[in-house]
Design brief:
single chain; alpha/beta; 2-enoyl-CoA Hydratase, Chain A, domain 1; Lyase 2-enoyl-coa Hydratase, Chain  A, domain 2; 2 domains; five-stranded parallel β-sheet; four-stranded mixed β-sheet; 50% helix; globular; lipid metabolism; ClpP/crotonase-like_dom_sf; Enoyl-CoA_hydra_C; fatty acid metabolism; Enoyl-CoA hydratase domain-containing protein 3, mitochondrial
Length: 244
């Protein structure tokens, strides 16, 4: 599924309406056997500029502001709860909550011209919610430098520090993203869903608990039809036939 942020005139800001739309598109028919991977991209030179600052002006009350941030947090956490991998295809600037969106995706492929920043501190609104995703994707000191200074990371710096998975020339962005997507589609959906859920669950656990939990998950994985099919196919040196 391709989800395209399509309000370039407003730099694809995550307005309340955009967040509702993004949430709806992520959840739409999410249990369909046909859905294997979701790609989030954007129109225009800016991938996403973050929140719509006009919605955060003093004209709106605190209740409205809280609604914006709570919905944004819901969408970001939803990405990691979905049973299929979510790829950010970034071609341009991703700032504040836009940078948070990239950090929240399972995989991120960026063009060489892309940049990533959390500049809220420069306008008196520290990027505290983007910091949740950034602090879990980047080394702490790199994340804090971004948050304290608002200075952007280049695509290569973002790759070096782990914010994105790959950096390619702009004219190769679509090709590389589809290459990853097609590779994902070759695997069992049920196995990937189990693996994704387990990965994020164990990341929040201590080492001993994580190993105990994942050992049980691997045993459970073997009880799946696709788990047995994959092992038998490997032994027999043939291509597996997944249940989906």
């Amino acid at each position: 599924r391709n989800i395209v942020l399509n309000n370039p005139r407003k730099r694809n800001a995550l307005s309340l309406a955009m967040l509702h739309s993004l949430r709806e598109d992520l959840l739409h028919d999410v249990k369909s056997k046909e859905l294997r991977v979701i790609i989030i991209s954007a129109e225009g030179p800016v991938f996403c500029s973050g929140h719509d600052l006009k919605e955060l002006s003093s004209e709106d009350d605190v209740k409205h502001h809280s609604q914006v941030f709570e919905l944004c947090a819901e969408v970001m956490t939803l990405i990691q709860k979905l049973p299929v991998p979510v790829i950010a295809k970034v071609n341009g600037l991703a700032t504040a909550a836009g940078c948070q969106l990239v950090a929240s995706c399972d995989i991120a492929v960026a063009s060489e011209k892309s940049q990533f920043a959390t500049p809220g501190v420069n306008i008196g609104l520290f990027c505290s919610t983007p910091a949740v995703a950034l602090g879990r994707s980047l080394p702490r000191k790199v994340a804090l430098e971004m948050l304290f200074t608002g200075e952007p990371l280049s695509a290569q710096e973002a790759l070096m520090h782990g914010l994105v998975s790959k950096v390619v020339p702009e004219d190769k962005l679509e090709e590389e993203t589809m290459k990853i997507s097609h590779k994902i589609c070759e695997s069992s959906k049920s196995v990937l869903a189990l693996g994704k859920a387990t990965f994020y669950r164990q990341m929040a656990q201590d080492l001993d608990t994580a190993y105990k939990m994942t050992a049980q998950v691997m045993a459970d994985n073997l009880t799946l039809r696709d788990g047995q099919e994959g092992i038998e196919a490997f032994i027999q040196k043939r291509k597996p036939v997944w249940s989906h």
